[in-house]
Design a protein that fits this description.
The complex is a heterodimer of chains A (759) and B (252). Chain A folds into 2 domains: 326 residues, ABC transporter involved in vitamin B12 uptake, BtuC, CATH 1.10.3470; 249 residues, no CATH class. In chain A, 67% of the residues lie in helices and 4% in strands. Chain A contains 36 helices and 8 strands. In chain A, the strands form 4 sheets. Chain A has a two-stranded antiparallel sheet. In chain A, helix 5 packs parallel to helix 7. In chain B, the strands form 3 sheets. A 6-stranded mixed β-sheet of chain B has the order 6-9-10-3-11-12, sandwiched between helices. Chain B has a 4-stranded antiparallel β-sheet with strand order 2-1-4-5, with helices on one face. Chain B is globular. The chains are: A mainly alpha (759), B alpha/beta (252).
């Protein structure tokens, strides 16, 4: 009926070819010009020169090529978080292959290698998302971490340079050079990609298929569109674009910097959504994305370049005017970009789709306000692909069978097996008090994050920002103790408040504006980490009061501090030497939340909301409240983990808690949670956290070989491995636990045999 | 015709002159509906005849443009389905509105789990859920079974069990047999007769006339948002009702 309900269409007065350019793009162009003029006004020395325009266009060129690919993915209602990582990875593959200090291959072979790796990653993304039905954000986020780990592992964190060899191949490296007209050749590549992308998305069958798939995948499927192939194609296009951008980068820099491309996905995604594409799928234009890129790069430049100021300084009672450039501290730029992402995802659903500008204009002119189109269609939550065939094994099983049928059984068993593996590998070290203390403390950090995430994931949401919130709260606590001179309690309170504020923003975007939780928390992922670096100005802070540091100490030290330590060599002594103060706190929190989730009304509401949000709402559950509480609680747990972190290390560094969201999500999924919601228990998540902690400890264990030499795996490769585990856990949950695929396979095998024996 | 009945009893639901438009599209125009206690009313008509819209107006999911609704003789003005539920009107949706990840007992008490202090009173929950299922004579093996492991027909039974656990006076079923197998449909019709025995009035929206003729007392035909006929099941034939659906003219 909804088709018939739409208001009578306005008289056909088409001034613009709307499939290419619309009012939003025109607005963007005007805004761009105004912003550039503002840049010229604030910092005439930089923006007044033609070099500024040239450098904006040069940077925009690489990101723009990636944004063209990303537009296809986002219009498909998917997301590709791996582009920034892939941009670095393909550059690294090229560098390692081409550089004389490494394999020293031919130029074209190096390019071919990079292209092969890029397309392989695109293919893996596509297979994970379309065939294995892993939610796009989790598949590509893991790919981001894996790619980043491989780049650092491969380059050893160093810069790989190939200056002189590059001189032998001007035909390739000319891409990165300025031409006779005074601008960089990369702008040409950008223009070609933009025009081709525009035409393909707007004019060809492939583009129409993309819009159909993003608009309503089920309907497109019924209409005979191979939607899986369409989505796979978009991931390949996106990966190809990221690879080309990576090649443009090495052509320009003639070297690989290990950190290149870090956080780049943020710029690209923010650009595409600022350009008017909908994170809810089905809408977007390449031209908008292209303009969005230029806008984001310009904002980035304006923020980074700072503005010239004149300060008056008193030197020997003589006033002197000093020219200075006020610059934003490190971290401020990603913080702003994260905020822009959070705001930008609201643009299409709440501004463009509801014609907010047109209605405002009508209101100003006093004309009748046109009605807002159906708002209901905005409330789209990620498609649920829950398998409906789950056997009731748990019902009929008894004893050991009953335990094995639990969703968290695997995590508990694996955790025990891993611990014994540690004993087997390093009998001299593994069981010691010191190692146990470190294991339990690392476990405490992951466990705290996963306790909060269990609520969020059981609600059917996700919180990607926990690691960043950890950093932000750690920064707040460290800053208030060290710089502001507050006491430990005040500082902890401030840290927790900061964390809850982040959670409240997540909750507002998710619940109030009805956008998927992964988008809201992705914005917070960058914002909170940026704020953390901003607070401490990118430096390390240390030297906190000892009464605060006790939180991260062994229980025995705390007891000694208060002069109530048990006698040495007693069991209590060993126990309090292996436990940290915060482990006790974590255990209390775990017991409380386990009771809440398992036995109270709130717990039941969480499972109902995650299981079927519509049914829960119809049954009178305030699902908005349940989801918001989950997100705020998760952020609170993140900030508690941040407090522990700085108490244990007695210092704060801006990279605190990096990759921790990966560990925590993996813990919950391994422990029986479902990425689609409705499942997850505290005991399971704790077991999952134990699995992750033990895996990390085992992988970074110094293994002593028979010949006396020892070997340690670098932390970057450990991160790669944990990423693989997360993907395996999600795929395993979808295909083994949810749809009982093993049972079906076994049944079909037996059925065939049975049929054959009958024949 | 219903006039004879109305003189005997007061209708549990009376909708008078209901009109509703969505923008330029007129969905309902001056529609009347009456439902008597313990009666089963079939609501039939083509697609877009306004059946679901009429029921959504009854439960408060939509707001009417004109007309009035009386429940047991009293004028009501529901603003949401929760308010109509409080007045004893339950709607069962085509796709059941259950949580597959939870078990039968938890779903029967979805959103109003009995509590003992701060905790969920599981004992009461499961025993009462069991009672409701027994009363309906539904053969769900156990109240501890997860709903997504049940067949479509049994899920439908759980949805009905959930609805009647509110002790409603009226149950509205939206296309209850659309997704069911033949056997499951048979069982559902038995359940509906069981409900009728307990004095619950029912409105069934259905495309399948044979279902309505199997359990219904009266059938009402809508066509393009208008009332085109009302027949008592005993005194009509499927053929006559079909003729009304296809070429009925507004009666007033």
């Amino acid at each position: 009926m909804s088709a018939a309900v739409t208001a009578p269409s306005p008289p056909a007065r088409r001034r613009l070819p709307l499939e290419i350019i619309g009012g939003w793009e025109v607005g963007l162009i005007i805004f761009l010009i105004l912003l550039y003029l503002a840049g010229v006004y604030i910092n005439p020395r930089f923006f007044g020169s033609s070099a500024a325009l040239s450098s904006v266009m040069r940077d925009a060129a690489r990101y723009g090529v990636m944004a063209v690919g990303m537009t296809f993915v986002i219009v498909n209602k998917d997301l590709d978080l791996s582009v920034g990582s892939l941009y670095g990875l393909t550059a690294a593959v090229f560098a390692v292959s081409f550089a004389p200090s490494y394999f020293n291959t031919d130029l074209y072979l190096a390019v071919a290698w990079a292209l092969a790796v890029g397309l392989l990653v695109g293919l893996i993304n596509g297979v994970l998302v379309t065939i294995l039905r892993v939610p796009a954000f989790i598949a590509t986020l893991t790919m981001l971490f894996i790619g980043r780990g491989i780049v650092t592992g491969m380059s050893g964190g160093k810069t790989i340079s190939f200056m002189s060899k590059a001189g032998e191949h001007p035909e390739f490296f000319i891409i990165g050079q300025n031409n006779a007209w005074g601008f960089n050749n990369q702008v040409f590549v950008f223009a070609v990609f933009a025009v081709v992308g525009m035409v393909v998305l707007a004019k060809t069958t492939a583009g129409y298929q993309t819009f159909a798939t993003g608009g309503n995948e089920l309907a497109s499927d019924y209409a005979g569109i191979a939607t899986r192939r369409v989505r796979m194609r978009a991931y390949l296009i996106s990966a190809f674009c990221a690879t080309v951008a990576g090649m443009m980068q090495v052509a320009q820099d003639r070297a690989l910097i290990a950190q290149s491309g870090q956080g780049l996905e943020l710029i690209v995604i923010a650009a595409v959504v600022v350009g008017g594409a909908s994170i809810l799928g089905g809408r977007g234009r390449v031209l908008g994305s292209v303009l969005g890129v230029i806008l984001i790069v310009l904002i980035d430049k304006v923020l980074r370049e700072g503005y010239a100021t004149t300060r008056t300084v008193l030197v020997d009672k003589i006033e002197m005017k000093v020219q200075a450039v006020a610059q934003l501290p490190p971290g401020a730029v990603p913080a702003f970009l994260g905020l822009i992402l959070i705001l930008a995802v609201l643009i299409e659903p709440w501004v463009i789709r509801r014609n907010a500008i047109g209605r405002l204009w009508a209101k100003i002119r006093g004309l009748p306000i046109p009605p807002a189109p159906d708002v209901g269609s905005v409330a789209i939550v990620g498609a649920q692909t829950r398998g409906s065939v789950v056997s009731d094994r748990a019902m009929n099983a008894r004893g050991l069978g009953k335990f094995l049928a639990r969703r968290d059984a695997a995590a508990i068993i694996i955790a025990v097996v891993l611990w014994f593996a540690g004993i087997y590998l390093r009998p001299d070290f593994w069981g010691s008090l010191d190692n146990s203390f470190n294991l339990i403390l690392a476990f405490t950090e992951v466990a705290l994050l996963s306790i909060g995430l269990t609520f969020v994931i059981a609600n059917g949401d996700i919180d990607l920002s926990v690691g960043s919130v950890l950093a932000m709260s750690g920064a707040i606590a460290a800053f208030s103790m060290k710089t502001m001179g507050f006491g430990p309690w005040t500082s902890i309170l401030l840290a927790l408040c900061g964390g809850m504020l982040a959670g409240a923003v997540n909750a507002a975007v998710t619940v109030r504006f009805k956008l998927p939780a992964f988008v809201a928390t992705l914005g917070m992922f960058y914002t909170a980490r940026g704020v953390a670096a901003w607070i401490v100005s990118g430096r390390e802070l240390f030297g906190f009061p000892e009464s605060f540091n006790l939180i991260g100490r062994k229980l025995i030290e705390a007891l000694r501090y208060f002069d109530i330590a048990p006698a040495p060599d007693s069991f209590l002594f060993s126990l309090s030497a292996a436990l940290s103060v915060l482990s006790i706190f974590m255990i209390v929190l775990a017991i409380m939340t386990a009771i809440i989730l398992g036995y109270t009304i709130w717990g039941q509401q969480v499972y109902a909301t995650g299981g079927n949000i519509r049914a829960a709402a119809y049954a009178g559950i305030d699902t908005d409240r349940v989801r918001a509480l989950g997100l705020v609680f998760s952020a609170l747990c993140g900030s508690l983990a941040g407090v522990i972190y700085i108490a244990f290390y007695r210092s704060f560094i801006p990279t605190a808690g990096q990759f921790r969201e990966l560990d925590a999500i993996a813990s919950v999924i391994i422990g029986g949670g479902s990425i689609f919601g409705g499942f997850g228990t505290i005991i399971g998540s704790l077991a999952g956290a134990a699995v992750i902690t033990l895996l990390r400890a085992l992988l970074s264990l110094q293994v002593i070989r028979a010949d006396g030499s020892s070997f340690v795996l670098s932390q970057h490769w450990v991160n790669v491995f944990i990423g693989l585990i997360l993907i395996l856990a999600v795929v395993g949950d979808i295909w083994l636990r949810q749809s009982a695929a093993l049972g079906i396979i076994l049944k079909s095998l037996f059925a065939r045999r049975w049929r054959r024996s009958r024949a | 015709m219903p006039e004879e009945m109305s003189s005997l009893e007061q209708p549990i639901i009376e909708m008078r002159g209901i009109s509703k438009a969505f923008g330029p599209v007129r969905a309902l125009a001056d529609v009347d509906l009456r439902l008597f206690p313990g009666e089963v009313l079939g609501l039939v008509g083509d697609n877009s005849a306004g059946k679901s819209t009429l029921m959504k107006i009854l439960t408060g999911a939509y707001h009417r443009d004109a007309g009035e609704i009386l429940v047991a003789g009293k004028t009501v003005n529901f603003k949401s389905p929760h308010e109509s539920r409080d007045a004893g009107i339950e709607m069962i949706y085509q796709d059941f509105a259950l949580c597959g990840n939870m078990d039968v007992g938890q779903n029967v008490f979805l959103g109003r789990w009995p509590r003992k202090g701060p905790f969920v009173d599981r004992k009461t929950m499961y025993s009462e859920a069991d009672n409701v299922l027994k009363r309906l004579k539904v053969d769900v093996n156990s109240v501890h079974q997860r709903v997504e492991s049940l067949s479509g027909g049994r899920q439908q039974s759980v949805a009905i069990a959930r609805a009647i656990s509110f002790e409603p006076r009226v149950v509205v079923l939206d296309e209850p047999t659309a997704n069911l197998s033949v056997v499951a449909t048979e069982r559902l019709l038995e359940t509906m007769l069981e409900l009728k025995k307990h004095g619950v009035a029912q409105i069934i929206i259905s495309h399948r006339l044979q279902d309505i003729f199997a359990v219904g007392d009266r059938v009402m035909v809508l066509k393009r948002g208008e009332n085109v006929g009302e027949r008592e099941i005993k005194r009509t034939t499927e053929h006559e009702v079909l003729a009304l659906i296809v070429s009925g003219k507004p009666e007033k």
